[in-house]
Amino acid sequence: MPTASSCDHSPARVQTGPGTRSIVLFGPPNAGKTSIYNLLTGSRFKTVNYPGATVDYAVGRLKGRSDVVVLDTPGIVSVVARTADERVAIGTLVGVSKLVPGTSEIPEVVLTTVDATQPTRHLVLVQQLLRAGIQPVVVLTMNDLARARGRALDPDRLSAALGIPVLAVDGRTGVGLPALLTTLDEQVAGNSPPPHLPSVVAEEELQADFKAAEALVESSTVVGQKPSHRDASDRIDRVALHPVFGLVVFAGAMSLLFWCVFAAAVPFQDAIDWAVTGTGAFLSTHLPEAWYSHLLVDGVVAGVGAVLVFVPQIAILFFLIGLMEDSGYLARGAVLVDRPLSAIGLNGRSFVPLLSGFACAIPAAMAARTIPGRKERMLTLLVIPLTSCSARLPVWGLLLAFLVPPGHAWAGGLALTAIYLASLAMVSVAAFAGGKILGLEPSPSGFQIELPTWRAPILKNAVVSAADRTVSYLRRAGGTILTISILFWALMNLPSREASLAWTAGHWLTPFLRPMGLDWRVGISLLAAFAAREVFVSALAVVFSVDGAKDATQGILHAMRDAVLPGGAHIFTFATCAGLVVFFLIALQCLSTVAVVRRESGSVKFALGQMASFILVAWVLAVAVVQGLRLVGIS
Amino acid sequence: MTSLTHMNKGDSAVIRALQGHQELRFRLQEMGFTPGAQVKLVARAAFGGPLAFALRGTTVALRRSDADCIFM
Asked: Is residue A414 very low, low, confident or very high in pLDDT (cuts 50, 70, 90)?
């Protein structure tokens, strides 16, 4: 996901022909919808899933039926949409054909989930569907847990009372799945009339629905031995949300998260570095002295290798966010930060988007769909590009080598922590200033979030999803970086260095670069970084003609240390690298982020204004830092 | 009538009425905070942060100002 082009933000592509029938999975969040989707389609995990929330739909083929697709939709509490992700969910009830070619407009089957441990809330939605003219198939999930708590539901009694099929399915073991598949086979053969979805639900109607749902639950409950409760989960919450311990645990969890990203990745990074170096050395000794050998070693191996080194960090970040998502801690984190975030105009719901932003701004911007208030949502979209995304990691790694004395690993860690804290400070300042400048109306929506039952995260799920996200990152980012490395090498070297296009373009930028203490070579690397920030590193490697045979990172460092301006002064000094850090912290140089912000905000003006102002502020502050440092005698 | 913010940790109460902006009132009721529902205060976050209530088989956290619109 991390870079622009690497982020998969389109749903899975399932080839469908005309006459395809569709089943829409529609239901409340935290009701086991995803496990049912996985059982029905045989997926290992959702093909489209972003940290913290399903904010887009996923499409898969029903097991054993090549002519039937299953759509998973974002969680929803009512048939009246209030947030952008809820609109996605409700949109599927009347416009499947827009999403999956070959299907009819109205899905043949609407499948809704009811969590047996909290049936009242979920049955309210079933009643709203029935009133809208939709006859859903109800899947009763977590009935085993409800039974353990002494309040199992009888699906047959519920079915008789509602007049629609109700089937109990265990999402983890698949018990009950054959009966569900049989029912779906029958139901999907029929046609559904278009629903008449209400634009509003009256307060009295909602209250009556709850009363009716309570009565339904009462008449369908099989009371067991133990009383109904979820004490174990509440006991953990008493600590996790405790005014003192809660904050200690939160600070510890976040520190551990970032420590793992940097420290635990080191052995893997060393291994990759070793492999890249070996490849470069092997190629330069075995290939003939020709232009294509230079392209391969200096362009491809050096360029791609410089970025590959950071893949372990990205994978670990995905893995840890996956663990927190699975355990239920992400929702608790949102609760803990609601108060401080509300002080700068954001919302506890901004937590997951901001945390995801440290991996990649694209899924982060999409996760912002779950924020109900327009003001909070726009401000979150505004500040997401300021979170230090993983695409910046290669850049930090390179620049820190000039800022921190060699041989002091702890100093590097400290400097990196400072960069992340600076990133959070930028988020706060921008949210606060943005709230004032944009003049957005505060919304009355407040902050409400359901805290799903705590559960031990399933390690295998987190590993598989981190692996899949990383592979998808590599496939997409890898392609971009490879293409740009080659393109860049060509632009730099053809027909000759001095006559090359890059040389000319780089010189146009000189007026902007000189105040930052940089020259055209860094300038074109900055330009290349608009495709994906980490390309900055591979572009520098190509520009300064790093020999791929040397150590992947050390090679660039040597070349950069030797690089001088026409006057003879060194380009990469403490001051200019500090300036570059400031520039990369703030500048919005990711074209895909601009595209996604435009789509998510629904405003071209907002997206372009954000890009222009962030770049301007970044440049001004970077110049201020470089010139300020020079003024006090630090070159 | 007092609002839910006055509950002590571990206390249970029955919701009697909701006040405040129509949109917020509706949202809260969709989450299950309807008149007649029983709630229990599970936790309070630091610095006047959100309150977590056990309700209808699950736990829902509300910002203090939201909980102030619900009366017991």
From this structure: confident
Q: What is the pLDDT of residues A137-194, one digit of tens each?
A: 999 998 888 888 888 999 999 999 999 999 999 887 889 999 999 999 999 888 888 8
Distance, in Å, from the CA atom of B53 to the CA atom of B68, rounded to the nearest integer, reads 13
The Cα B50–Cα A287 span in angstroms is: 65
Chain A residue numbers with beta carbons less than 8 Å from the beta carbon of B35 are 207
A415–B contact, CB cutoff 8 A: no
Residue A609: alpha-carbon gap to chain centroid:
23
8 Å CB contact between B27 and A199: no
Which residues constitute the domain of residue B53? Answer: 4-71
CB contact under 8 A, B46 and A243: yes
Q: Out of B27, B43, B47, name the one closest to residue A445 (CB).
A: B27
| Interface mutation target, options A241, A247, A370, chain B, most CBs of B under 10 Å | A241
Q: What is the mean pLDDT of chain A?
A: 84
- What CA–CA distance (Å, rounded) separates A3 from A476? 8
Residues of B with Cβ-Cβ distance to A451 under 8 angstroms = 52, 58-61
Report the CATH number that the domain containing residue B22 is assigned in CATH.
Answer: 2.30.30.90
Q: Which of B26, B44, B66 sits opposite A203 (nearest CB)?
A: B26
Question: What pLDDT, on the 0 to 100 scale, is given for residue A369?
Answer: 84
Q: What residues contact residue A44 under an 8 Å CB cut-off, 6+ apart?
A: A38, A464, A468
Give the span between the Cα atoms of A511 and A513, in whole angstroms: 6
Pick the residue of A76, A80, A145, A210 with the most B CBs within 10 A to test the interface with B by mutation.
A210
Please write down the HEC assignment for all residues of A312-365. HHHHHHHHHHHHHHHHCHHHHHHHHHHHHHHHCCCCHHHHHHHHHHCCCHHHHH
* Whole-number pLDDT of residue A429: 95
Scanning every residue of chain B, which has its alpha carbon at the shortest distance from the alpha carbon of A237?
B43
Strand partners for A232: none
Report chain A residues whose CB lies below 8 A from the CB of B20. 444
Q: Chain B contact for A210, CB < 8 A?
A: yes
Q: Is the Cβ pair A338, B49 closer than 8 Å?
A: yes
pLDDT, one tens digit per residue, over A68-110 is 999 888 888 888 887 878 888 888 888 888 888 888 889 999 9
Q: Dmax of chain A from CA atoms? A: 87
Report how far residue A517's alpha carbon sits from residue A87's, in angstroms, rounded to the nearest whole number.
Answer: 49
> Please, are residues A216 and A158 in contact by the beta-carbon 8 Å criterion?
yes
The residue whose two tokens read 């989960």 is A233
Residue A445 sits at the chain B interface (C-beta within 8 Å): yes
Give the separation between CA B2 and CA B6, rounded to whole angstroms. Answer: 7
**Taking CA A524 as the corner, what is the angle to CA A3 and CA A595, rounded to the nearest 5 degrees?**
35
pTM, entire model: 0.82
Tally of domains in chain B: 1
Q: Which residue in B45, B52, B57 is closest to A339 by CB distance?
A: B45
Buried b (16+ CB within 10 A) or exposed e, A112-136: bbbbbbbbbbbbbbbbbbebeebbb
Question: Could you tell me the CA-to-CA distances from A40 to A88, A155, B59 in Å, in that order?
Answer: 21, 20, 29
Question: For B60, which DSSP code?
Answer: E
Q: Please state, in angstroms and rounded to a whole number, the distance separating the CA atoms of residues A234 and A250.
A: 17
